[in-house]
Specification:
single chain, about 260 residues, alpha/beta, 8-stranded mixed sheet, about 20% strand
Amino acid sequence: MLSFGAPQDVVADWTELGGLPVVDVVAAQKNPSCVTLWLHGGAYCMGSTAGYCHFGAHLAQIANTRVVLPEYRLAPEHHYPDAVDDACAAYLALRARADGHEIVILAGDSAGGGLAMATLICLRERGHVLPDGCVFVSPWLDFTLSGSTLVSHAELDPLLSRAMLAGASRAYLNDADITSALLSPLDADLSGLPPMLIQVGEHEVLLDDSRRLAERGAAQGVRVTLQVEPVAPHVFPLFASFLPEAHSALRRIGEFISAATVSPS
């Protein structure tokens, strides 16, 4: 399952969690006290758990965390809120298994970052125990597509564009209200949410989503760390096997997890 170039002594196994197929990734020579539920990117239409195993292996080894990668439902066959329901089910099952003995981190990249934020708000609304921390990498947080960098960075970002995001949103939304807090949480009440680490590349069209989340979270009392990597592309931490900046980003995620392990929210 792990591809060529993955770290040594990492084990990845298919299992089930909350009714979903998941891959459980563990660095065999470590004894992590934390488990990270990572929601993959792909604009809610693409991507797969299997495709993220290589990244999960690097994250498990560098950040000393067990990594769980769920296979949530994708558009166009499935629509909002199916992905949110799947992510909530996986989180609740993972939290039940942890049984208070593990730190649980909720994380995701790109659309997976937006899904992680939607999951966080949904969990709070339903009165569930929240994660001990959240990691957002290049998150897509605004289905209204109002971020200023969607225009100002259009020539800088080689991967994403406003038109691409608009097409993906049509496939996922199925006439849902794009101003809902589970789709565009930048105007939502963020008070009481756990500590957040946000990583984003300086040249991304989604840079403004990360900035606005950091500003709103901090204004409402959330402990937020925003790390903007100069020149880096969309979801740059995924390229840890060959990009030094990505390797450093995973180390910073590990530091964030270690801080949560010492003093959970």
